[in-house]
Amino acid sequence: MCPVLQAKHPKSHHDHDRQSVGKQSDGHAPSLVEYENTYKLEPDSRFHETQIREIIAKVLKENLTDNSYDARVMSHRCLELSEIIKERVKLLDMHRFKIVCMVIIGQNSEQSMMVSSRCLWNFAHDNFASFTLKKELYYAVGMVFVTYAE
């Protein structure tokens, strides 16, 4: 029996051509499989305007119970409320729709305010819903825009 000679290579941190099986050379996980487009031009479900308006109203009424207005607090509250509304709208399972949610809270000091928006969209599938909550010292406007992603 003859002994098998094996060459020993010193391990170096400069070996770039060696990879582990599950990782790319840069250390990130392998890229996900890309699927072909379905070319689906019509949505499976329609826009639920009344349900979305009810979601906006419920979130604003539940979370804006105090009657004081502080600009610093309300700016953070706008972010929180828009995220809550967006997550609840996602639960309606409107697949392939993009959801944009905005909440505006302002001090009510007898001034007038007009909120307007302009969108480029397909009137057959895209839509929006809004709700305005008026309190003694502030007002809140919640808006949800839903566009179909073909």
TrEMBL record:
A Gene Ontology biological process in which this protein takes part is:
microtubule-based movement
Pfam families reported in the protein's UniProt record? Tctex-1 (PF03645)
Q: Please give the CDD domains that the UniProt record associates with this protein.
A: DLC-like_TCTEX1D
Q: Where is this region: Disordered?
A: 1-29
**One Gene Ontology cellular component:** cytoplasm
Q: Which InterPro entries does the record associate with it? A: Tctex-1-like, Tctex-1-like_sf
Which GO molecular-function terms appear in the entry?
dynein intermediate chain binding
Q: What family does this belong to? A: Belongs to the dynein light chain Tctex-type family.
What's this protein's name?
Uncharacterized protein
